[in-house]
């Protein structure tokens, strides 16, 4: 083996030094090749260098998108996405009368490595049906992200016990799982449906505004329980549908 000791290597012609085919340049015992050299940074502002497995490349990192499901469907992994954060709630239970309202859907969230996943089936629970005073309102449906995580819906007013608010749903399969809020029980006029992770139920109201509760029952957070109807003359509100939110990261 030959050894050359120099401080400067300079081509005799041009600006490049070539290593003939079949020869290698070794630095500290490591062979240097085209895969060892970073690509040009021109036009790559805001990106970071990563390994492609055979060399280096520039790529975008961090959150790249959000998909929101308000009804059932299929999540399809976008190119380059390797990790997702899923947040979901089950649907709220329906309300009755005399302050008896529905419970909110449960909540779950989970970080999932999806490098080997192409698509996932998504289910979004429907809100529980409403009823008049002393009737048993419907339970909210379960929301789920494939078999990874899910959250049950809240129970309807009077469905757990007469003159009681609905019990809340519960998340499962997540890195974090929690109950929703319970519905209010028997009272004189205005109660409130259980609050979900994403917010509260619809407003309660006096009949002088007409069927105020029912007219504005859509103004509630996903998964919230249905507010009760005024006294015994008005039906309660239906529970709010659940929701599934998928944050996508590279």
Quick overview:
With 250 residues, the protein is mainly β. It has one helix and 14 strands.
Question: Strands, helices and their partners?
Answer:
Elements: E1 25-27, E2 30-32, E3 48-51, E4 56-59, E5 63-69, E6 73-76, E7 83-89, E8 107-113, E9 119-123, E10 143-145, E11 149-151, E12 171-172, E13 176-178, H1 212-215, E14 243-249
Antiparallel strand pairs: 1-2, 3-4, 5-14, 6-9, 7-8, 7-14, 8-13, 9-10, 10-11, 11-12
Describe the structure.
The chain is mostly beta strands and 250 residues long. It has one domain. It is 2% helix and 25% strand. A five-stranded antiparallel sheet has the order 5-14-7-8-13, with no helix packed on it. A hairpin with a 4-residue loop joins strand 3 (48-51) and strand 4. It starts with 24 loop residues before the first strand and ends with a strand. The relative contact order is 0.21. The model has no long low-confidence stretch (mean pLDDT 90).
